Amino acid sequence: MSAQATIEQRERLIIVGNGMVGHHCVEQLIERGALARLDLRVFGEERQRAYDRVHLSEYFSGSDAETLALGDAQLYAEHGVRLHLAEAVVEIDREAGEVVTAQGRYPFDRLILATGSYPFVPPIPGPDGAARLVYRTLDDLDAIRAAAYGAQRGVVIGGGLLGLEAANALKSLGLEAHVVEFAPRLMPVQLDAEGGAALRAQIEALGVGVHLSRATQSIVEGRDFRYRMNFDGEQFLETDLIVFSAGIRPQDSLGRSCGLEIAPRGGVVIDGECRTSDPRIFAIGECASWNGSVFGLVAPGYSMARNLASALSGEPFEAFAGADMSTKLKLLGVDVGSIGDAHAATPGARSYRFIDEAGSAYRRLVIDAEGKRVLGAVLVGDNSYYDTLLQYVQNAIALPADPAGLILPLGSAAPALGADALPDAATICSCHNVSKGAICAAIDGGCSDLAQLKGQTKACTGCGGCAALLKQVFEHELSARGVAVDKSLCEHFAFTRQELYALVRVEGITTFEDLHACHGRGQLGCDVCKPTVGSILASCWNQPIMDAALVPLQDTNDTFMANMQKNGTYSVVPRIPGGEITPDKLIVIGQVAKKYDLYTKITGGQRIDLFGAQLHELPEIWSELIAAGFETGHAYGKSTRTVKSCVGSTWCRYGVQDSVAMALTLEDRYKGLRSPHKLKFAVSGCTRECAEAQSKDIGVIATEKGWNLYVCGNGGMRPRHAELFATDLDDAGLIRTIDRVLMFYIRTADKLQRTSVWREQLEGGLDYLKAVILGDSLGLGAELEAQMQQVVDRYECEWANALKDPEKLKRFRTFVNDHRPDPAIHFVKERGQRRPVGNAELHLIPTTEEVL
Amino acid sequence: MNPSNQAVRVDLQDWQAVCSRHDLVPYSGVVARVGDAQVALFYLPEAAQALYAVDNHDPQSGANVIGRGIIGSLKGQPVVAAPLYKQHFSLLDGRCLEDPQQVVRVWAVRFNGDQVEVAV
């Protein structure tokens, strides 16, 4: 042990356990500079270094062990921490002051237990193996994956938080998933009866079977599946595999066998300083019991790790004083939140409840007897209320006059808690315990950029749930300090998009090089300014985007005039104006899809998307489509996408105008128009509105006398209804008005700003927009129309243009020196078509290369 | 880095011709196969260093797409933006600017007349 002898007399600290909490403790010690005086060894029982157990189910949906791993692989080595993986500590010899593993004995001056917990498997008679799986470690997940091979149905015993996570994992493996719970509702700890019922309805709608109030008596051989689970009262359920997730137990066996004090319900007893009954030994996380409680969440474990690291570094520290067990989760895609006293256990507590049986949403607000404070809340179906409610509970903020507004559907003037209403003590990020005060201090210290703020304070680097709130606080505090938010497009242009648009227009600039030379700085540009300028040039001059000078400006998808998908292949969308297509053209699409083996799907915009084409196949596919009379659909561009239409008066007994003909006119006019963001249109033939025009950027609805025009709506992440802009327009008036609205939008919107956001930020609102467009208050009307006409006149199908020029086609090669396709792209068949193989399925793929 | 040192180092390697200058697309990328590897080649005709080569494999998405990214310059260093998730890689050392854990291999590359050659 000569290496040991050369180490000066540093205190020897050993951490047993390399899970999330043990790892956090190491990080905190490093951050506090404690490694200068500590000789630190870490023992982990598992093969893998610390990983993110909270997001374990992502292991089946694309993440591998390395992406789940926490922190930089080199971190321990860089700071001289010796990490012993796959080396379980089997004994703590307190007398000798040593830990014992199969490999040897290691002396310690102080010791931290961070051994976590293990899944509880109730003693039910039955076979082992696939009938007795658990869900805790990556190895457990590998075992589940192996058991799922050839299986059809999987059951999770336990309908708590982890059980539902496990059900999600089974679902991602393609199994029919069932959850069996002993209690009469799901998530009995966090939810009340109505919340449990709403969650059950949502989960059943996702195709997961839910079986409540069921106690499994035995597991025997099944008839239709591998196993049969027998419940009380002759009932049973058959399945191919069973995952137990009926709760966790503190992993306290090391503490137990060396005689540390153990709590009656398990867990190594600790005080507020995380000290066990032996003053040299500490315990943190799920293996520890504080005040009779074990905390099965990561945030309290992190807070113990942080406090202990401060104490060991000789810094002032807070004593651990319990933890807020509020949780916000997305289980099987369903939002679930539980805050504070969710069960209204506080004497005198009263509740408000919002129940939406149609949408299976449920919200409960628990307030105190005096009606002054929020005590807790239950949320199922929509967690957008969570942040505000949590702030009310944590910071004892006084209730608004109408407390029910806190859980009523948004839009009915819910009093959202503004960033300025929060006290400095308000916790913004619970994972890293960052208060509003700490954020303000960082801003006062000169931090003026959100990424920098996250790096400095660690806020929003844990679960990420506080992202929206952090941004809100950051922007509010910046403007409160009178800091002008820098509106420069990027480091190459100290202008906004609107200013650049004006420069391009006024000076007649037609290339990025000229604009950069006259008004830019630095070299080369970047992926922010190049596509922005490319879009402005196209909006103004509409030159073919594949022209040599314009090619390097185009965003990913515009470059190859197709939409890149997750595996690097492309999807192709031919234009189908108004959704009207002849049988002959439909057949051609089918033939092309079949020839190139493209996955085919109908889009929401009444078109057909063909997926899975490789770069070198795009020109061949397009020459066949163009020969049949198709044009590019611009699905790849920030540009006009589709004009959706109902069938209109030609067929429909209710139709009052020919909506299809108008849709064709509009699509033909605005196709190829590039704009700050995508543009979607729709035309409905009567007020029944079957084309859903009120959810589009430009919506047209027929009236007895002509057309009503709606503007600035959209679907997507934040839906917004379009607003009625003008009524009973004739055909020419409709087109003139749309020309002006769109060109005014292109002229004044920010980059990547949809019409809805543009309209909401427009000073003066809808009245101002009406004054400019309909009243021509700025005298711009004729100019806007002329500019639109120029774009319309210059339209040319980009694909037809590119196919004529061998120089442009040069780019469409997967490899410049090899005619073969990318050997790393693999497909599998599903429902009769091919789709990209998932990361989790890669082991199924033969590794030999296909040679064409 | 001392340019003469670099020259000494790469001269010990084998240079493999992968394509001609005419195959490159100015201010943008193309991809060549070099053995089992895929190398993205970026051409900046007027820059001091006109040619850059990095792995085509995007560590974040797992797809071979880096050669189809947008070329730019951030804080004076040439970068490529990965086309799927838009993270930036330095063309000088292959490091990802947003996440230092992501690195793409940088290949030595040169013109030999009109031939583009990569050191293997």
TrEMBL record, chain B:
One of its GO terms (molecular function) is metal ion binding. Keywords: 2Fe-2S, Iron, Iron-sulfur, Metal-binding, Nitrate assimilation, Oxidoreductase. CDD domains: Rieske_NirD. Residues 16-118 form the Rieske domain. GO terms for biological process: nitrate assimilation. Pfam families: Rieske_2. PROSITE patterns: NIRD (PS51300), RIESKE (PS51296). PANTHER family: NITRITE REDUCTASE (NADH) SMALL SUBUNIT (PTHR40562:SF1), PTHR40562. This is Nitrite reductase small subunit NirD. The lineage of its organism: Bacteria, Pseudomonadati, Pseudomonadota, Gammaproteobacteria, Pseudomonadales.
